[in-house]
Every structure is written in C-alpha cells, then in structure tokens.
C-alpha cells in the first residue's frame, strides 16, 4: 500500500494487505463476482440497449469506521431524519415553517413533488419517512457532510447485506482480526418498523407486503430480496384490490387484508383514481384505504419533496426549527440558482463547481465542471439561464478515499456512504454501517452504479 499514512482503524487491514499476495486478492475478487452473478444480484440501466442487466462492481477491501466515528454519525443521522419527518408533517399540515419565513412558500407549494393528496392526511402514527437513505461524504478536512437525502424510495440496502455475506465467506481470516459490528439484523429491524406503524385496527400480527413495479424495474432484485428477507409477500398492482376502503391481496386461500405496504413505486403510480389514470402499477382505491386510516404506506405519500435538492439546501434551518439544535452533520455548501446572485456566481465559476438538477438522481443530468469540456460547460450554462430554479450548485469537494483493488494493485478511490435510517413508532434505529459506493475510475467523484461506480462492505469496528 506504499508509505502513505494509515488511519488507525485500517491498521490490521494494512498488515493483512502487506502479507497477502496480489494473486490471492484478484482470485477472491473474481470469486465475489461469480457469487453475485450466480445469485442474480443485478440492476438495469434505463436507456442502455447494450446491457439490460449489469453487476455492480464489488471491491473486496472494506471501508472501515471506528466506533467513535460511527457514534457521531449516528447521532447526526437521527437528528436529521427526525427533522425531516417533522418538516413533512408540518408542510402537509399547519405549515409553521412557511409562516415563519424560513423557506419560500413557492419552493414547497409549487414543487412538483408536493403531493396535494397528502394535505392534512396524517399517516398512521404521524410518521412519513420510515426508511431513509442519507448520502454522507467525508472531506479532506476529515469531516462528515450530508450530500443528499433520499426519503422517497431509497435503494441499495440489499447490496449492504449481500456485500457482508460475501466478505464473510471469502475473507474469514480478515474478520478474525477485527470486531465488526453486525448488519444482519437489518431485516428484523425493518420488519419491526413496518409492523409498528400499522393502523390501530390491527388484531394480531399486521400483514405487510412489498409492492414492486415488476421485474422490468432496475431495482427488482432488491424488491424480491427484501420480501424474502422479511418473510412477506412480494406483490404487484394486479395482486391487490380495494373493497369498502380496505386493501386486500389475492391469495390461493382467498382475499387477505393488507395493513402495511412497503412501496417501491412512486406516488404517481400508486392509485389511478387519484394520480396517473394510465398507471397499472398500483391499485385503484388504495388512497381511499390510506385516507380512511385503514392502511399504512411506507414511505408515506408526499415524501418525495424531501429528496428535492433545493429543499436540501435549507436543511440547516429545518433542523434548527424542528429540533432547537445546531445540525450535527453539515450540508455541503450549496448555491440555489433560483436566486439571481447565486446564479451569477455559478455561471462565473462553472469550471469549479458541480451543478445538479434539483429533482435529479443517479448521477444523471449533472455537470462536473472541472472535468467538463468548454463546450459542455457552455451548453449547461444555457440550460441554467433558461430555467435557473431547476438547478443547484456545489463545490467539488476533496472527498476522502479508501484503498481499493484495481488492475494495477491497491490504489485510493473516492467513496461516499449511504446509511439506512429506520423510523417507527418506537423511535429511530440504524444498523452500524451502510452502503459504501466507490468511484472506480481514477480521479472520478461519481460513485453512482448507473455511472460506473462500485460498492464496498462497510465495517464499524467495536472497541
């Protein structure tokens, strides 16, 4: 690994790498790829006619956090998700934060993700975001920052769990040198969270289902994986129907009442009677069951507005307003292009900034200024001038790196981290770790799987 300084949590990994032949590492890497291929852990890339299904590249060198680092992260995540839930409850109810003038009302009320059907329709137990994926980056200053909030249908947890299983199978000798906190409890925690938010009418154990758009969806593997891990039914819209404001699923033994839907379908496709009339992915009448208090939907209707990157820019104010505390985890500095002064700055510094669409995801539609050509920056500037409210900009951070196995040996590659935060009636829970995504190209800052990024197992070391 060379003579670069090694952070203390990596000391045992450094020693292991120094004594391990390169051929052994590459053999284990190939075996991991074979394992993933056999179990079918793939994802689809929309619009790519050359490759309908792909493996996400996996790196066998773990990303490691100390317990002290994790404890601070955990506290910050709990604070942030608590504030997000309070924000969603407020904007679909009394709108106190808008009355206080902390967020421009039009940014919320005219937002495409603001769901009219959710207004004054409080979900069971008042919880909106039951499963959140918060993207964390570590900077060269050795500080953690939140890069994005994913509060609608966050994905990737299946890779967190499968990555751990592969590592335990292929590199047991590395686990023997560490006390790694487990992530295997996630499925039990998720099922407990979903059952805890079931409507009050439930007698006995609530019936939970995972609703998928179907096998053509890019994350279908994860949907089926989670249903299997939870021990619940994986359903499509055609498996469901509503009668007397109650949701049922069709079974070989007759209709069975459904209490909780863990949906991996966007709002617009859940109920053709309320949203898109051409949708076949949901069930007609589902919203009537939801509004009558007979059904919990996780995540709740309307949570997508918390994914908006313009709303993200106000998260420090949101945390302070609802918790009365200073944010433990900072935002990345953000320019809102809807503001004339910010737009002028961004246009003058496009070669230094990362510019993103406020409703974008997956690394699509963004400009990485330092890596873009003059022509690309000029074309993006025209988009900014045409509709500045659609964009935010951030500095290109000096992101932290982790040792990564590449063809030439071990090299540093940029990473981020997506912990999965669960909120139920009994509070907020987080398994220690999350999904580490790694930018495999030398110098790249783009970790998204759709853009060629890979994943790592994330270890939190118990003291």
TrEMBL record:
InterPro entries from the UniProt entry: ATP-dep_Glu-Cys_Ligase-2 (IPR051680), CP_ATPgrasp_2 (IPR025841), UCP005522 (IPR016450)
Domain Circularly permuted ATP-grasp type: 62-439
Superkingdom as given in the UniProt entry: Bacteria
Record-linked Pfam families: CP_ATPgrasp_2 (PF14403)
PANTHER family: BLR5612 PROTEIN (PTHR34595), SLL1039 PROTEIN (PTHR34595:SF7)
Protein name (Swiss-Prot/TrEMBL): Circularly permuted type 2 ATP-grasp protein
